[in-house]
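Q: Structure tokens for this one, please.
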Amino acid sequence: MEEGQLVHSAKAEEVIVPEQRVRKIFDKKKLQDLADSFLRIGQCQPGVCATLNGKVTLVAGERRLRACQLSGLDFLFLLQEDASEDLLLDIEIEENLNRVNLDWREEIFAIEQRHHLLEKRKKARGVMEHSYKATAEDIGRSVGQTYEDIDLAAYAREIPEVAEAQTKQEARKIVKRLKGEVVRKKFLEQAIDKSKEEQGASGASAAGEPSPESTTISVGGINISSDVLLNYDKRVIHGTLEKELESFKSQTAQIVFFDPPWGVNIDEVRKKGGGTSDFEDTPEQFSKELPQWLDQIFQSMASDSHLYMFFGIVRYAEVYNALKQVGFITNGLPLMWYKQGAHVTRNPEIWPGRSYEPIAYARKGSKKLERPGAPDVIVTPAPTPAMKQSHPTAKHPDIYMELLKRSARPGDVVLDPMAGSCMSAVACEVFIHSHRLDWLMIEKDQEFRDLGLTNIVKGYHGVVNKEPILDDSKIDHASDEEVRRATSAT
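A: Here is the predicted structure, written as tokens:
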């Protein structure tokens, strides 16, 4: 309280709280603790009131007023015309921080305001430094929590995606991702620029292997040959399927992986966790664009080639009708990818969890399978949460490895026109020595493109945290019972 201000008092129960005032719900224990404090040392900080129609009416300080009512003490207050803006703000911040139904945005902004107000007061006294520790002690919270909340407030004020998060935890995940994007982009740009300076773009090997003159550089702690990095960078294109396939050499790709938005509103039904950006996925978009996408893909494929298209089972009829209309050959039976450990459902008490994903296998021409009679149920581990940090629908590299084993011949061109996490390229690189696959990724979102490139730089071991199994005899195949459960679930 500023020196010289006249403090008034009134019986707490006689102070009017206006009906139009937003009623605040305070923590009962904290309110009782404040009342007990008033009984011991008195009400040190007054509230603010105005005189309306001859009655004392509360302007600010409802928490102090209620504590006085609990303790039976008179309520001390300043008249509104005598109260400074700092005092009104101070009371508002304190009340906000002690509300029970406090929204996370109101909470972090209140803490930030309190920090700046304390900082301002210290500067007014000639003290130029104010620490997060001092603010933490003032509001009764840990230093780490206080710092994180003030940092989060700065992001929430400037970035709508952060401010629109449902919870503080989700907002922090978004901020973490945004910070990671900045660091990752910086590492990639620096590494690519350095590679160009030292080797020149022409030094990159077509097969993705380092040349004898290549130097080793670090990308975010991952060591990689400079010309291999440049090779990857050229093969992961930031662009759209529609535009990039116009310039893509026609009838070239022997294998195409296609994982478009499924048209099942995944951007609405998926519980947002803040790990990655959202993307458009509406039934209307799917129905409108699928025929055009498939036609462009068909034109880009070699005369003898295979297509593997991931899709939502509810779109079965639409997908297979579009495939046939474009000119693909199918038997109408999708492959079933059984993801061990995955049981996804929005209503677990009503519906069984989904643990499979259908894949439309379609042919152009007469390309034969490299593994004749391979089963139509494929079993791999489910994608891990870490994998999905790079894209909300990221696949496990093992599914692409299995499909490549079925279709790939040495030197085949592999195209993924909606690459997302680029796990298909991670799988292609596993076969670099045996097949030297010529792969190309296209991704329209810059963030996902950079995340995908990072996955390729990490390689299979860095993404999965173990070495790939190339010898099928060493694979721990699912039992007949597991396969039976997977197929019966469909």
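A few notes: Residues 168-198 form the longest helix (31 residues). The two ends are 70 Å apart (CA to CA).
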